Amino acid sequence: FDFDSAIVRVPAPSVVNGLSASGGEMPSYEGVLAEHRAYVAALEAAGVVVDVLPALDAYPDAIFVEDPAFVLPEGAILLRPGAPTRMGEVAEIEPALKRHFDEVLTLPDGFADGGDILITPAEILIGLSARTDLAGAEAFVAQVERLGRRARIVDTPPGTLHFKTASSLLTEDCVVATPALAATGVFAGLDVLVTPEGEEAAANLLRVNDTVLVGTAYPRIADLIAERGLNVIVLDVSEIAKIDAGLSCMSLRW
Ligand code: CIR
């Protein structure tokens, strides 16, 4: 979570048609824009230089730049998103990655979304989900090894969009996770701060340097994190939550 750079993408008006598993109320464009602006400001306040890419109206979910690519300080990997409407986002983000990274690798086959990939100090976890299949996860493991890092394929609890919908790295030795994901034992060797009942969606929070970005709707987890001496910034994510997104999805960080 020591980052000095990030990539984000301005929401397009089409964001109101983003993918939503719940099929409930859709967000308003103005609402998403406001949440996105506050998010970029919070990243900057945490010490990150943010490269803001232009809106892409052809891809309603393109503001969730975390999914079509994976980045480390050592290099980037263009992924293959599991939702057919999102595959075109890969070619759109490629020029930005080539501007920032000497090494930009690709996935030869399968499907993998960046939202399924969690970086911990010891290893990188990639969760199998409705968006990430075994072929994609195995291809990811092979490519990340070329960047000098080790990755492990794990399961995502049923009904969870992405592995990171249910988990985030909080400190060097602690992750935040939903009860369902914590119960799988996948985080053996790490401390797990389990989300309080009713605040499961808070698990997709974002640690950036000494700051933790947390949704405004999750005061109990925000208090638990503040008690650990971390600087908490609360951000409204109620509009993007309507299209199944949280705080990690809106940036690539390194
Ligand atoms: C999707 O279903 O692909 C978007 N509506 C939400 C993506 C959220 N991304 C993420 O958690 N990394």
From TrEMBL:
Tagged with keyword DNA repair: no
Task: List the GO biological process terms.
Answer: arginine metabolic process; citrulline metabolic process; positive regulation of nitric oxide biosynthetic process
- Which SUPFAM superfamilies does this chain map to? Pentein
Domain of life (superkingdom): Bacteria
Q: Does the keyword Ubl conjugation apply?
A: no
Alphabetically sorted, this entry's keywords are:
Hydrolase
Offer an example of a GO molecular function term for this protein: dimethylargininase activity
Q: Which residues bind substrate?
A: L19, D61, E66, D67, R86, R131, I243
Quote the catalytic residue positions.
H162 (proton donor), C249 (nucleophile)
The cross-references to PANTHER family, in alphabetical order and at most eight, read: DIMETHYLARGININASE, DIMETHYLARGININE DIMETHYLAMINOHYDROLASE
Q: Which family does it belong to?
A: Belongs to the DDAH family.
Supply the name of the protein: Dimethylarginine dimethylaminohydrolase
Organism from which the protein derives: Sphingomonas cavernae
